[in-house]
Design a protein that fits this description.
Structural class: alpha/beta
Mean pLDDT: 92
Number of helices: 15
CATH superfamily of the largest domain: Alkaline Phosphatase, subunit A
Strand order of the largest sheet: 7-6-5-4-8-1-9-13-2-14
Low-confidence stretches: 1-30
Radius of gyration: 22 Å
CATH topology of the largest domain: Alkaline Phosphatase, subunit A
Oligomer: single chain
Number of domains: 2
Strand content: 15-25%
Helix content: 25-40%
Number of strands: 19
CATH class of the largest domain: Alpha Beta
């Protein structure tokens, strides 16, 4: 296919990974030697791609280019978002901050211009910067945002076919398919910037619903059946111990029995998703080919990831927002043969707030103190061994989608604790080592019936044995993370 490199050619062009750069990253905001040559960075951001929407992890999908990118780089198998929702996650990527810090808690709030972002810092360091694709923060405007020398975007969700773009302030109507057009603009920027340090943020509309695959991919999944997750069935066993809102959501806009006002068939939905994803794979192949032709492939840091995960029937749900694994996990591929040893699968828990400090450290650029994430540059070059063992998740109730409650939670290497607000229902605690599909809520027996007071106190007063120690530790860790990141433990309205 035109513009797409084959797996065989891709592997030839990347070759064996070179020796990693010797740079220190002993703490969250460690700096590389500023005398080091500025490394080009390409950040490829997808919308709603599940962590396992890669053929190397799930043979239902066809992503040969992404598979090869991962095989010649690093696949981080436990990458997450701190808020599983488009705009809050995008703001977290840019700022390195949690949603409660940057203030973008929904899909309509504009990111305050006063908050430091990593593209602004790259500009200060002499990088040429470009944003190409879906912005989706403050959907009423597609005006150029601070931090980018080149701006190509559109309002809100945009269109798959024949979209309009705001190109550096001028609105242009284009014929064609949006994934291909975004890639055209991205390639053009790379070619024109090849003699300078550059940063490219390529942000695809795909694979956001409603799905419209490229014409060349239409029908390519006809007759194929996506394997349903075990927790999808509406059975007593599947919902035993779950909060009541989970089963109730089956009939909602974001449930398998009521999806999108009952106008969408689940099987067709997943097939169209997979067909639409194929153009993303083509796009990455074109970017790789361009970098190779310019002699920049081995030295350029490519980061491929998604704004959030996506549930395909887990617990009877679709979409995101919840703290279940399919919602919060995202694919993360890092490729740079001059820096990383290829063929790795890593288990460290990487967050979307980590991209900003990592990219800045890669560029040898100071990291603002406002950034709450950690640079994982030291994991790439092998100079860092320690890493986080727990992190904070937060999602804030939306009036437009009231079926998912506010949740504050903590995930560690082994356990996950979810604490809900504004509902009369259970909390959830899972041992992910023995229960990776989150089927057996360890706090299922603890609910408020006639009693007064908070559920926290009821659990603390009744829980016994090893579970008591786990619950206490998770509550303590949650309070600690909320305090460290400057978040309130309860929802509040401040003027």
């Amino acid at each position: 296919m035109s513009g797409m490199t084959s797996r065989r050619n891709f592997m030839k062009m990347t070759g064996a990974a070179a020796v990693g750069l010797a740079a220190g990253a002993g703490n969250a905001h460690a700096q590389r030697n500023p005398e080091t040559a500025k490394r080009n960075v390409v950040f490829i951001f997808i919308d709603d791609q599940r962590y396992d929407a890669l053929s190397m992890l799930n043979p239902f999908f066809e992503t040969p280019v992404l598979d090869t990118l991962a095989q010649n780089g690093i696949l981080f198998e436990r990458a997450f978002v701190t808020t599983s929702l488009c705009s809050p996650s995008r703001a977290s990527v840019l700022t390195g901050q949690y949603a409660h810090s940057h203030g973008v808690l929904d899909n309509s709030t504009r990111l305050p211009a006063s908050i430091p972002t990593f593209p602004k810092e790259l500009q200060k360091a002499g990088y040429k910067t470009a944003f190409v694709g879906k912005w989706h923060m403050g959907g009423a405007s597609d005006a150029p945002r601070p931090g980018f020398d080149r701006w190509v975007s559109f309002r809100g969700q945009g269109r798959y076919y024949d979209p309009g773009f705001n190109v550096d302030g001028d609105r242009i109507k284009r014929d064609g398919y949006v994934t291909d057009l975004i890639t055209d603009y991205a390639e053009d920027f790379i070619r024109k910037s090849k003699d300078h340090p550059f940063f490219l943020y390529m942000s695809h509309k795909a694979v956001h619903a409603d799905f419209y695959p490229a014409k060349r991919h239409e029908g390519s999944y006809e007759g194929r059946q996506y394997p349903y997750p075990a927790s999808m069935a509406d059975t007593e066993e599947n919902y035993r111990g779950k909060p009541a809102w989970v089963k109730a959501q089956r009939q909602s806009w974001h449930g398998v029995d009521g999806m999108y006002n009952k106008r969408v068939d689940f099987d067709e939905f997943v097939r169209k998703y997979a067909e639409t994803l194929r153009a993303v794979d083509d796009s990455v192949g074109r970017i790789v080919k361009t970098l190779r032709e310019l002699g920049l492939l081995n030295s350029t840091l490519i980061i491929f990831t998604s704004d959030n995960g996506f549930q395909f029937g887990e617990h009877g749900l679709i979409d995101k927002r919840t703290m279940y694994e399919a919602s919060i996990r995202v694919p993360l591929i890092v490729h740079c043969p001059d820096l990383v040893q290829g063929g790795q699968r890593r288990k460290e828990m990487i967050l979307n707030v980590d991209y900003a400090p990592t990219i800045l450290e890669t560029a040898g650029t100071p990291i603002p103190d406002s950034m709450q994430g950690q640079s994982f540059y030291g994991l790439l070059d092998g100079s860092r061994k320690d890493w986080r063992d727990a992190w904070l998740y937060e999602y804030f109730w939306e009036r437009s989608f009231p079926q998912t409650p506010t949740v504050l939670g903590v995930r560690t290497d082994r356990y996950k604790f979810m604490k809900y607000h504004g509902i009369w229902d259970r909390y959830e605690l899972y041992d992910l080592e023995t229960d990776p599909n989150e089927m057996h809520n360890l706090l299922a027996d603890f609910t408020i019936r006639n009693e007064g007071g908070a559920l926290d106190g009821i659990i603390s007063g009744r829980v016994q044995g090893e579970l008591k120690q786990v619950y206490k530790a998770m509550q303590t860790k949650l309070r600690q993370l909320l305090e460290e990141t400057g978040s309130a433990p309860e929802p509040n309205w401040r003027t």
